[in-house]
Amino acid sequence: MVKNNRYSQIIEAIFFKTYKIGLIEIPFSREQIELTANELNIKLPKNLGDILYSFRYRTPLPEKIVNTAPKEFEWIIRPAGRALYKIVLTRQTHFKPAEHLTETKIPDATPGIISKYAMNDEQALLAKVRFNRLIDIFTGLTCYSLQSHLRTTIRDMGQVETDEIYIGIDKRGAHYILPVQAKGGTDKLGVVQIEQDFAIGAIKFPRLICKPIATQFMPNGAIVLFEFESFEGEITIVSEKHYRLVLPNELSDKEIEMYKTRTG
Fold first, then answer.
1. Are residues 14 and 62 in the same domain?
2. Does residue 173 lie in a domain region?
3. 112 and 82: one domain?
4. Domain boundary among 58, 91, 124
5. Residue of 197, 195, 193, 196 lying closest to 183 (CA atoms)
6. What letter would DSSP give residue 44?
7. Which of 15-29, 114-128, 183-197 has the lowest mean pLDDT?
8. pTM of the model
9. Which of 20, 97, 124, 171 is 20 to 30 Å from 215 at the Cα level?
10. Nearest CA among 214, 151, 149, 221 for reference residue 183
11. Mean per-residue pLDDT for 199-214?
């Protein structure tokens, strides 16, 4: 709580130093974070980026900032270049799994030794997605993991990172780039991460078809996968599926027959 209060004081001071009714963008720099902390006599964390990470993926912005947003809009933090950021007013943009979507059971092919030694939720999730070919099943493509934790610099964004990169190929022979964002625990999936993945595809793999994917453990243990599209600057979900990894004897013949009649 102390950490969150400390972070809130810093980001509030930066925001309200510039904010006026009608503004939709508040630019700031990493240097301003340090200067503001000094002005408020607040000790900064060793990892300065934790302040930004916290508000982008873990906790909402302070209530005083949230309350300035019109209905159905929210403030988010976007990268704006090397050590540059901006608090931007946008439509509400956190993606959450649908509560009543049908699950599909998949026989669990995760090696037991991997499940035993996965270091955190995100690592375990990526492993389960990889060993169970969930990207292939979800997209209908044949996919191969190219690289984990790709970190690169994008103009006007600065440093960006995606959790895993897959290369896919369809029945026509067309090639795809699939950046994958994995969220474990209580981390939120926001539009900024998907915008960055579209940028990675456009800049680093311009000849490939870009399909950003996100995956997350649900509270009930199922795995949700999202596919996104970008149209006129708006990021939307084009597909969502829920998968449950099970032992072979937990998938009945009746369920397999039922899957034959599904349309999507």
1. yes
2. yes
3. no
4. 91
5. 193
6. P
7. 183-197
8. 0.77
9. 171
10. 214
11. 95
Are 236 and 125 contained in the same domain?
A: yes
Of the candidates 215, 161, 162, the residue with the CA atom closest to the CA atom of residue 184: 215
Q: pLDDT at residue 92 above 70?
A: no
Residues 6+ apart with CB under 8 A from 218: 97, 224, 242
- Give the residue among 79, 78, 75 at the shortest CA–CA distance from 89: 75
Q: Is-contact 79 220, C-beta < 8 A?
A: no
Q: What is the domain range of residue 21?
A: 2-91
Tell me the two tokens of residue 170: 């369809």
């102390």: which residue's tokens? Answer: 2
Q: Tell me the C-alpha distance between 82 and 212, whole Å.
A: 23
With a cut of 70, say whether residue 202 has pLDDT above it.
yes
CA atoms within 13 A on the CB side of 181: 25
Strand partners, 84: 29, 81
Q: How far apart are CA 250 and CA 107, in angstroms?
A: 8
240 CB neighbour count, 10 Å cutoff: 15
Measured distance CA(182)–CA(95) in Å, rounded:
13
Number of domains in the chain: 2
Q: Which two tokens stand for residue 142?
A: 């044949």
d(CA 134, CA 244): 11
Q: Which residue has the tokens 């001071």?
A: 13
Return the residue matching tokens 């090696």.
111
Tens digits of residue pLDDT in 132-178? 999 999 999 999 999 998 888 887 777 788 999 999 999 999 999 99
**In whole angstroms, what is the distance from residue 235 CA to residue 196 CA?**
11
